[in-house]
Predict the structure.
Amino acid sequence: MIFKYKEDDFLSLSGIQHYAYCPRQWALIHIEQQWKENLRTKEGRQLHERVDNPSFFESRGNILIARSVPIASYKLGLYGVSDIIEFHNNKKSGVTLPGRNGTWKPIPIEYKRGKPKENIFDDVQLCAQAICLEEMLGCKISHGYFYYGQIRHRHKVLLNKNLRDIVNDLSGQMHKLFDVNHTPETDRKLKNCRNCSLFDICVPKLKKKKFKIESYINQFIEE
């Protein structure tokens, strides 16, 4: 199989959610290395800390649970960590696991604060994780789950062709911007901007206002 990217080209998988939310936000974080935590990101980080334990592996009946699993895809050029992967014992289909009998079907589970959203900002991240697992394990994953901290139960996401196409397109756009080291301007979608942890750093109003340095100097002299 011919892969599109090399390991040196890999970008953070978590960034695909940032990019879907706002390409400028993604660039500020992943190209310019800027980050500012707000209440939402703090709550999300605390939720992750409760489940991220790389040494933890447990068995519950016919289900094996692995936590904080490193994943990567040469097709997408992304790498990251899956919060939880459940391996369900399945005699008809699945993958073999070292030291385990039978075959096991992997299902990715991601932890998020809040509740299910009407947009696909979360879904693309889960789908990207599934694509990584499919590539690594040589299997097919039809769905995954989010566990949302606000509602405290799972939300199922179908990983259909449309969602997969969006993930492929977004990852390609991320690589193009990263390669040219470009931070795009924002369309200033008010709802997204208000909830953005980088609102003060982004200062989108200043990006919209264009002026010449000559005008600025003349104004300073006049004053």
The CA atoms of residues 100 and 150 lie 35 Å apart. The domain at 7-222 is CATH 3.90.320 (Lambda Exonuclease; Chain A). Residues 206-211 have pLDDT under 50 and may be disordered. The beta strands are 11-12, 57-60, 63-73, 78-89, 104-112, 143-148, 153-158.
